[in-house]
Design a protein that fits this description.
This protein is of the alpha/beta class and 253 residues long. The chain has eleven helices and eight strands. α1 packs parallel to α2 and α1 packs across α11. The longest helix is centred in the C-terminal third of the chain and has 19 residues. Bound molecules: 2-phosphoglycolic acid (PGA). 2-phosphoglycolic acid (PGA) binds next to β8.
Length: 253
């Protein structure tokens, strides 16, 4: 049984002070949820990591970062290494979010290097994959996801989470149909199975992301190969994020 995950990606929102307040509010609201029933991850922007880590201390909610540098240290102005993130209390890191691929020019090769950097520093990467509307309309979803998954099917540590986030569904209010998300998640698991074998592929958690909200989460969680959600907009509001955590907590019970 794979424990469901609810991961909040705050993107470029919230100062350290605002982030600590939001994290505390979330903790208050999810107090009644059995921590064993759902893994909750919050990914604030870099400057808020320490304050949010303090707010989360002693709770079962884990901290994640939204990106990391491909190298471990050195002359990379503006870079943030995996080791630095670990020192801030992070356990997870997003890699290859579509906004980084789209706006920062991240390539599959760079995401592969970042995945390796995450593993070197002991972080669990959440590799984000997903096709854009044009690729979907051209029937290329499988090809695009197959190539973005390349770093996850190379030999090496398979300690990772994969998030399927169709680009057209992110921030648009138009989520994928749950059955379609489930189908792509199964495709992803089959690729992982081909590469790593059933016992490893069966443990890797696959998330859906893109306009998830308290009203639609249940449909995604009902899919066999969808093990949780990666949430942007609805994670910035404590009440809606808490409702997502509650819904995921009910998946197993
Ligand atoms: P959204 O973002 O929930 O606002 O669509 C999801 C994401 O980008 O991870």
């Amino acid at each position: 049984m794979r424990t469901p995950i609810v991961a909040g990606n705050w993107k470029m929102n919230r100062t350290p002070q605002e982030g600590a307040a939001l994290a505390s509010e979330v903790l208050d609201l999810i107090g009644a949820v059995d921590p064993a029933s759902v893994d909750v991850i919050i990914c604030p922007p870099f400057p808020a990591l320490m304050e949010v880590a303090c707010a989360l201390e002693g709770s079962s909610v884990a901290l994640g970062a939204q990106d990391l540098h491909r190298e471990d240290a050195g002359a990379y102005t503006g870079g943030v290494s995996g080791e630095m993130l670990r020192a801030c209390g992070c356990r997870y890191v997003l890699v290859g979010h579509s906004e980084r691929r789209q706006y920062e020019g991240e390539t599959v090769e760079l995401t592969a290097n970042k995945l390796a950097a995450a593993h070197r520093s002991g972080l669990i990467p959440v590799l984000c994959v997903g096709e854009n509307a044009h690729e979907r309309d051209a029937g290329r979803t499988g090809d695009v996801i197959g190539s973005q998954l390349a770093p996850a099917v190379e030999p090496g540590p398979a300690d990772l989470i994969v998030a399927y986030e169709p680009v057209w569904a992110i921030g648009s209010g138009a989520a994928a149909e749950p059955a379609d998300a489930g189908e792509v998640a199964s495709f992803i698991r089959q690729r992982l199975r081909d590469a790593h074998g059933q016992s490893i592929a069966g443990r890797i958690r696959i998330l859906y992301g893109g306009s998830v909200n308290p009203g639609n989460i249940t449909g995604f969680l009902a899919q066999d190969d969808v093990d949780g959600v990666l949430v942007g907009g609805a994670s910035l509001e404590a009440v809606s994020f808490a409702r997502l955590v509650e819904a995921a907590g009910r998946k197993q019970s």
